[in-house]
């Protein structure tokens, strides 16, 4: 297995290189780079000064070539693309994610600042989804074909079909606007620092309820149906009939024998789901509830052409995704020793 792990780790290098190269090449053909945006903002400011009769009117006729070269050097665009690409790779090899063009902060610091919001959404969604989906899937498998199975399947599929942001709008209008049971924005209140710790916890849960509910309702459908199908497949196997013939209770058969085998596809997905919860960024949910997380950071970076943030977050999240995928594959061996990678 160690040879397999080493092989997978070595394969991550060309995979990372390919992802970064492809994204970097696409970026070169996207119009409106950081230099163009800087010049557009400068011209807009100079034009406003001209309307006001200010002395900035003369500068609105154009940008001095020397100043233009200084701007290009500031953003690193005075070098050819291949040099900028290799320089970026050398930075990433040292785990230096670079410096944001427009926020004047290291990319790693920006991610660290936005991470708590996305962690709050992701972890609560992960915990609640699995806490509801796994027992629901087991109950559906035990009662397969019954009215309970049909009704819950209908509810789960309808919840899965409703987009999270549509549900979020409805929750905001009803519970935030009309009934005013929950706040409309933010992760905590403005006076949160002045509250006692019990009051802080209540305030945090009060704010996080609607965003998490918007993300949870559609997220547990796949896990619930996967759990149901896995249990149904195991229940029909011969070892279950043998266990029942020995006089074991239905509870012992389900939770002692069936559960371990049926949970293999569920447990192996735990690492990816758990790590993904730390870096989950839902742009629409964060925008809707005014939550400044990773989703909003990524969107603003793309819109403003903040390339260091785009490439830095891409490198970090791709690396974490590859490592998490490796851990998920290794979990097959941990859960089912019959699996051999050779």
UniProtKB/TrEMBL annotation:
GO terms for cellular component: plasma membrane. One of its GO terms (biological process) is transmembrane transport. The keyword Membrane applies. It comes from the Bacteria. Residues 115-328 form the ABC transmembrane type-1 domain. It is a multi-pass membrane protein. Keywords: Cell membrane, Membrane, Transmembrane, Transmembrane helix, Transport. InterPro entries: MetI-like, MetI-like_sf. The keyword Transport applies. It is found in: Cell membrane. Pfam families: BPD_transp_1. Belongs to the binding-protein-dependent transport system permease family. This is Inner membrane ABC transporter permease protein YejB. It comes from Tepidimonas fonticaldi.
